[in-house]
Amino acid sequence: MVTPGPQIRNIVTAALPNDAQETQIIDIFRSLLQQLHSKERRCVLTLDDRNAILREVQFPPMSRSEQKRAAKIETERFAPSAQPCITYSARANAQRYVLGATEQSALDRLLRIAHAVKLRVVAVDHAGYALRRAYPEYDAIIDVGLQITRFYAYGEHVPFSLTLDMGGTHFTQAIARSFAIDGESAEGRKRMHGIASAGESEVAAIVHFVGRAMRAARTAGVPDIERILLTGNGARCALLQNKIERDTGCIVESATRISNCTMHFPEDIVRAAAPDWGLACGSALWSLAEEVAAA
Predict the structure, then answer these.
(1) pLDDT of the residue at 294
(2) Would you call 244 helix, strand, or coil by DSSP?
(3) Is beta strand 96-102 parallel, antiparallel or unpaired with respect to 120-126?
């Protein structure tokens, strides 16, 4: 019996150093592609709030070329130094769009890396949308990456988002300090046992950030948030999950699967690795979302 819906056949990941040079990233990507054992070279890239801005706009009926000119004028209004990159129809039978803009240098860097490893870029997406495709049943997603925590809350169209310069690496460093062990051992301990009594100030800072982000989202018109997903490297911290749940009154769950696709891996492997896979899987689902939009 064939399982319906998209299936993930293989997935590989790597942690990029925060200060990685372009040549280092290219080498890491080449290694990942070798491990992937796939002839597929189409890819979807993602940008986030550090180098991309999303705004909902309304245009009167116009041609595609006129839309592009209107997008450029609108972008100059809210992001003078950026270039409009995408327009995405946000509502059927209406002239409402989500306009994405990014610094051209950030986009060019991604494209150079992709071309260097012979990937064919079919789209540049926003991380907030990619995570939404992977986990559509949640009102908000907190992506606790290695260095940065991203908060996304989902209203009708444009994701509300905030970022904090703190992530899973800060938990690992706190464990290393508390137990006088090296970084690799501390990372292993975090994945197996959580942070124990270490990193409480880091947890408190992220919990405070989440509370601030939820208040800002409410002010921005996002509906009430009831279910929150924790994903990313730091999502394995049970203390963080419990404190966010207690402080917000929301149901908070850690990623243990990818909602919109199936995987032919043992369940224990999926549960352990799912926090690291959401963004990549959501990006891979982009083409299916486009097919639905075009139907």
Answers:
(1) 42
(2) helix
(3) unpaired
Beta bridge partners of residue 102, listed in sequence order: 52, 83
Residue 214 sits in which domain range?
Answer: 136-254
The dihedral region occupied by 118, where left means phi > 0, alpha psi between -120 and 50, and beta the remainder, is left
Which of 87-91, 164-168, 219-223 is least confident? 87-91
Domain at 153, CATH number: 3.30.420.40
Q: How crowded is the C-beta side of 159, counted as CA atoms within 13 Å?
A: 27
Kindly state the DSSP code that residue 236 receives in the 8-state scheme: G
Q: Of 254, 289, 273, whose CA–CA distance to 129 is shortest?
A: 289
| Residue 102 within any structural domain of the chain | no
Alpha-helical (H) ranges within 119-199 are: 127-134, 168-179, 183-193
Q: Which residue has the tokens 């990937």?
A: 119
Q: What is the mean pLDDT of the chain?
A: 82
